Amino acid sequence: MSTQITTTPSATATDAVVVATDLSKIYGEGDSEVRALDGVSVSFPKGQLAAVMGPSGSGKSTLMHILAGLDQPTSGSVLVDGTELAGLNDQKLTLLRRDKIGFVFQFFNLLPMLTAKENIELPMKIAGTTPDAEWEATLVEATGLGTRLTHKPAELSGGQQQRVAVARALLSKPAVIFGDEPTGNLDSKTSGEVLDLLRRAVDEFGQTVIMVTHDASAAAIADRTLFLRDGKIVRDAGHLSAGEILDTIKTLE
Amino acid sequence: MIGLVLRGLSTRKLRSALTAIAILLGVTMISGTLVLTDQIDRAFVQIFQQGNAKIEVVVKPKPPFQDDQTEVYLNADLITAVRAAEGVQLAEPYIQVQGYVIVDGKAMDQTGGAPSFVFSSVPEALNPYTPISGRLPTASGEIAIATEIAEKSKAKVGDAVTLATQDGIKPVTIVGIVQYGDGSTSLGGSTSVLSPLIDVQNWWSLQGKASYLYAKANEGVSAEQLKANVRAALPQNDVIVQTGKENADEQASILNNLIGKIIRYALLAFAGVAVLVGAFIIYNTFSITVAQRTREFAMLRTIGASRRQILGTVVGEAFIIGLVASLVGLGLGLVFAWGLNKLFGAIGFGLPATGLILSWQAVAVSLVVGVGITVLASIFPALRATKIAPIAALREGVTLPVGRLQKLTPVIAIVIAALGATGMVFGLASDADTTSRLLTLAGGAILIFVAVAMLARFIVRPVVGVLSVPITKAAGGVGRLASENAARNPARTAVTAAALMIGIGLVVFVTIFVGGLRESFTGAIDTSLKSDVTVTARGFGGSLPVGVLDAVTAVPGVETASPVGGTAVQVDAQTLALIGVDSATITNVYSFDWNSGSDASVQGLGADKALVEDTIATSLKVQPGDAIKVQSINGASATFTVAGTYTDPTILNGIVVDQAALKPLLQSNATGLNTVFVNEALGANPDIVQAALEAALTDYPTAKVQSNAQQKEQVASSVNTILVIFYALLALSVVISLFGIVNTLVLSIFERTREIGMLRSVGTTRRQMRAMIRWEAVITSIIGGVLGVLLGIMFGWAVCKGLESEGLAFVFPTVQIVIFLVLSIVAGIVAAILPARRAAKLDVLEALQYE
Ligand SMILES: Nc1ncnc2c1ncn2[C@@H]1O[C@H](COP(=O)(O)OP(=O)(O)OP(=O)(O)O)[C@@H](O)[C@H]1O
Ligand SMILES: [Mg+2]
Description:
Oligomer: heterodimer
Bound molecules: adenosine-5'-triphosphate, magnesium ion
Number of helices of chain B: 26
Radius of gyration of chain A: 18 Å
Number of strands of chain A: 10
Number of strands of chain B: 25
Largest sheet of chain B: 9 strands, mixed
CATH topology of chain A: Rossmann fold
CATH class of chain A: Alpha Beta
Mean pLDDT of chain B: 86
């Protein structure tokens, strides 16, 4: 089934930012065993916006956590920007995340006591590096948050908060940004603003974005759409329209 | 609901345990104190019961007033009348004095608080001591020593040793080793020597005198009956006649008032501090958990729980924590009592003790205080929990509603502070009795602590603002985050810091207070003494043999040797010291700080003039020219005209008269010589003179030769002992407050789990995570430390100013304050260890998904 509709956009191992080979993740043992991932091999080239879709429980979050080094696979390997994750200790993984990976979470995960600007700069502050002022200005411009930078998260709308989170992920120019349902908590208008920003990140700033989403209209902005079911990639397509995506989902259910 | 309470407690084990510790330690101290003092109390009763076991009737002198420091005597020849009384089988005079044996050049005396006794040996039928080897001494030159001395000195029956007496060193032979009663009661480090009556009378200038007369009844005559018979046989007003039991009870209660009660109230005061600190922590913990459980309570309300039931769950939780903590604390109290007893022994304040006693009163007090304080501290948070509306269950990110009272916090706090300040001023300035003054002073201090704790939330943000600059410099981004976290919930940080503030505040206060005491002594030595060396009597209240003055005067290099003596007297029912000086020489060795009068007034003292210390003159309301009537403890009285007033609350604190005028007012064996102030000749080598003085006084072992520097050192070292005890007792409160910091951090970390996950996911290393928590703790502890130091200085200053007339001087303890601030930072770092580990260990993924 997986080979049936494979139209993988050109992705050689050399220009891939994230390469996963034969990933499995098994939870529990014996009768209660759950194969959250079952032999997933996939690679993501630089400068691509990929959407990962699939029914609830299909393994999307699990895949993303493993790709981002937040979780370990039961077997298989992950390369991020040329670094093999297996065998890295916590300290090295932390530093890798700091330098090469950006995150956008479903719940905005901003620190309530910091202003928008401080939240954006937070990872760099923790790393003890100074953000590139020009790049930061560009990002702030792109987020459209200009006048609201000194506001605390509580004074920002959901969409604005999530744009702050995207800007935070972009500031250190990571090799890849992961988003787990970044628009899951937003209405269609505000999610549009966030998706626009992610799209610009790829098109204008050459970033790589991998996001998990349930929303067909969100996936419709992606360059590539992956479908998971029961821990396997069942379709790996290029850009699809919302309609095509909904059709595929129907066939999966 | 009770099921819910128990489930809640078991799911929050660590938090419940940390909360329990906050109260447990205070209860430990309470129960330990009660157990220990009950033990001491019981021991005193036992000691005196054994001492009087063989005696039916005791005849005692009846001084015109009581004075703890002065032993009084009666005429031994009254024994004839006692022996002649009907029903008397046997009667003997008995004397107790202070002295000790010297074995192989080593004095077998007590250096700590317990006295070294010499008792006259009465026949075995009356004697509480029984020989376990040898016999009781009967002939002059014989002694018996108590088993404790025998063990310590390895002296045996038949050994020739010497006895240090008021009349110098006397050669004696050990004829027996004796044991007190049945040997079960420790006499708490005091030493006892038995010597025949005649020797004690001769060597302590007590010819014809006795402390008591003991009488034993004939078969079939009751103690009460014998008491009546003896009473009838003796002159009415000079003596007191008691049964042995009455005497035992009275002596036990006198000693217990002197020692047991003081220890009890002092320790309970420190236990009170510990409980107060614990109350702050419990209040804080419950405030935090109630805030965190807002949705849970709202949910309970939606499914039909009443406000009363919500109140019940929170208070019920407090009750169970309080009960468990109090029970454990009660048990640990036994260990605490045992340890404290050992500690007192180790620092030379051995206390008599019997086996462990756990009275029902000790159990009741510990449980009531432990449970009561925990429940009380939880009531405000519980009331806030009842204010949560059911709708809160449905909303995201709800917070606790702000209560009406909370808005009034500053006003209430200021009212409390004003009340506290009033209490302190009253405590310092009023002329009520000492107990009520101390209580109002302490109450005032507690109110001020509470008020500052309530107001502290308003300074948290500014203080953190200042601290965040260096901390961000030192720790970068995580330092900044730590500052933000500390300032995020100012009330929480403030109360956590306040718990530490109390401990540090009191540490600073006692440092200043005890420093003031030391200064009052050493300062007086510097300003008042012109003499170079002082000869005093070892042991308390001791007289020096008259021969000492001549021996000192004869030492080459001594220019002036000025004798000073004294006795206890009463003027207008106030007990005071009447001090006899040598009016010809005193101004050479001592400089009066005159308010009225001059050195010429000293020369003109004569037989009927007196100089009065200023504070005493004020309280007696006398002025120069007025007459004062002095009642001596020996029964005589005299009237003096006030010739001048001077200020000296330390060295010559009393009424000064000429030596000759003092003589008729002296106690039987008092020599009128307690101190000799010595001035060295110009150009004399101080070391040589001092060595010569010591050599000249070898025959007088009770005489102690000290230079001014040595006197100051001695004051400093005893003051340091007191300080160390205070610090040790306050350390417990500081430790409790550390648990408070741990608790607050653990709760905050728990509440920020997802944030921590996010921080870790964006590249915060574990080390940085730990640093972040540590800095948060340090900020809290700095706030607590600084507030504590400020309040401690304020209290110390107030008390020193208030007691200025008693000689207390305010000395700013700069070095110690720096040390205390550093220690509070260290305390914060220590408190952060466990929470920091927990935060760093959190699994990133789990933390991110945490709901
Ligand atoms: N910690 C865990 N222990 C056991 N099973 C788990 C664990 N985490 C995930 N699973 C299981 O693994 C499977 C994949 O879960 P995953 O969270 O990746 O799904 P998902 O595609 O992200 O679903 P959703 O769209 O609902 O978020 C599910 O069957 C889930 O129950
Ligand atoms: Mg998921």
